[in-house]
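> tool_call: predict_assembly(chains=two)
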Amino acid sequence: MSSGSNPESSSSSQLFSAESYFATQPSPPALDADVTGVRTFIARQAKAGRRVVLVTSGGTTVPLELNVVRFLDNFSAGTRGATSAEYFLSAGYAVIFLHRQHSLQPYSRHYSHSTNPFLDFLELEQIAEPQAASLTLSSQTSSPEPIITVRSSDPKHLHTVLSAYKAVHRAGTLHTMTFVTVNEYLWLLRAVSKELNVLGRNAMYYLAAAVSDFFLPREKMSEHKIQSGKGSLIIEMDQVPKILKSMVDEWTPEGFIVSFKLETDSSLLVPKARAALERYGHQVVIGNELHRRKFEVVFVARSAPPSPEHNRDCLEDASSQIEETWLRIDEQIAGAGKEIEEDIIYELVRRHSLWTRSQIRV
Amino acid sequence: MSSGSNPESSSSSQLFSAESYFATQPSPPALDADVTGVRTFIARQAKAGRRVVLVTSGGTTVPLELNVVRFLDNFSAGTRGATSAEYFLSAGYAVIFLHRQHSLQPYSRHYSHSTNPFLDFLELEQIAEPQAASLTLSSQTSSPEPIITVRSSDPKHLHTVLSAYKAVHRAGTLHTMTFVTVNEYLWLLRAVSKELNVLGRNAMYYLAAAVSDFFLPREKMSEHKIQSGKGSLIIEMDQVPKILKSMVDEWTPEGFIVSFKLETDSSLLVPKARAALERYGHQVVIGNELHRRKFEVVFVARSAPPSPEHNRDCLEDASSQIEETWLRIDEQIAGAGKEIEEDIIYELVRRHSLWTRSQIRV
């Protein structure tokens, strides 16, 4: 990275493999504690016979400075991940929710600090002053104590969300972990995958986080805030290694792995999703276009079993046996509160069940 | 911007003035509506004889694509701005709170969705089933209705915050506006400054937002998501024009303008703050070092009147008449809940009062 009017004329980028990445980039300080926590959680779920899904959610950052003031970010509020986690929990899964710090979380997402400000739900009620006629000696009564009450415009919804939240906490089926940088994300993904591998085919990976394709290797980072005033800013970033390949081949070969492909150019969506599936050899790529992501997604997978409930357009490619299944919901129905994640998770649970019963890779 | 293994060898950056910036970069679609809203607010406050402060808060983004997937961001949760807004309100100011969408806001900041999850404050209480001995016909009673109650570990604090929040809403002294990108920020800052200019010296500007020094001109932005797989990513950004100069010279020459200077290298803090004050000719630069910002800040200003209450180190520079005043609070006291913003706002209100009474620039 440089700040100056003359960009460097030669590139110093290198190509990182997953192996060289983890050999050269520093692990997060809390990694050991995070691993211990998730290991305990997984052991408890295994004992209870529950399937476990790792849901990743939110965008990763790429800090430009060691004392970070500026960073590259990937757009994601965490809606897809937080919503999906709720449907996995209600389908009986235990969920490891690995999310960007301060991104949306299951249940509380309905009342995030901006869309439904918490304080607007609370009312101060002053207990009425004693009436003059009641002859109470006001000098003996302490000043009236206000009471805080809950006032919701949709108490039924609040009650439903709160009940589900409390039930999940009682059952202990939700384990949350946080990342900020893409480096933290990669280290945690590897660690959790290796831990979840003990569950074999009962583990699912739902990789909804918006992960940067590029990063700045530690040795290229500026220690202090990059100074302005010297013309333009030039940043050169290296490619993040393709860790899906390592997940499939090494970390969790029996896991049911679902990745996401987000595009803004819809003509690229299916070709890129198919290419990812062929390249990494995992189970499902869910393609979504940025502006249509709440209304339609496409499942790209090898020989997916038929699902008569859903309106689907099948395109079979005989040579690769990869097929596309579209899930769509009506925009009006979505406006009335129906979430496409409900259908996505329903379909994935069905496919995961088939996966756990099969002995060979589908 | 380019994605490829060979960086471009020639720079295409240009130097934008404020004038050429606004002449070439698009205004946000909601600008007119935002201006109408803030104009009404300012008129109401002017009628009530209140001083008005514009508080900017949170970090700006620089999108890399028109259909934005990736963006550069400036680190800021919005704590300084949200906290300061509360102290301005309690000092009798009306506040225009121009903040990054989803960053912290006054009052609700105490209960943000991550640090104090809202749902943990609520309890479901099931009303007890009728006792068998009570002989109530259970077939006639509907199933018991659960009641939602508020449970806080610190009810006194919740009560204080809630009371202040409700009082401000009743008084109508807080007006919130949001930005995401640095472009939106710059357009809104200019528009609000021009509106606030009607208040003359009764307007204050407290520019606590973390504003990018660099941006990507519209004509250089990629329409769609930048594709990976072609080697490294190279981004070249242009410098954001120095709009403080325009604020002082054109938009709001009588306003009391406070800017912030954040550094991670403490040796740069005072020199950079002094340089900013000399360059732009506004009233106060508040310097803060990233890791000490909750415990100490330095006011850099011309001939500030003495303030005996505060522990201060004065360094007079006879040639420029610029002096530095440190405000410090003890880390232990800060840990017990004392906020340095209380002292910052106290000192600024004092200086602003002097400013409103003076006829010449101090």
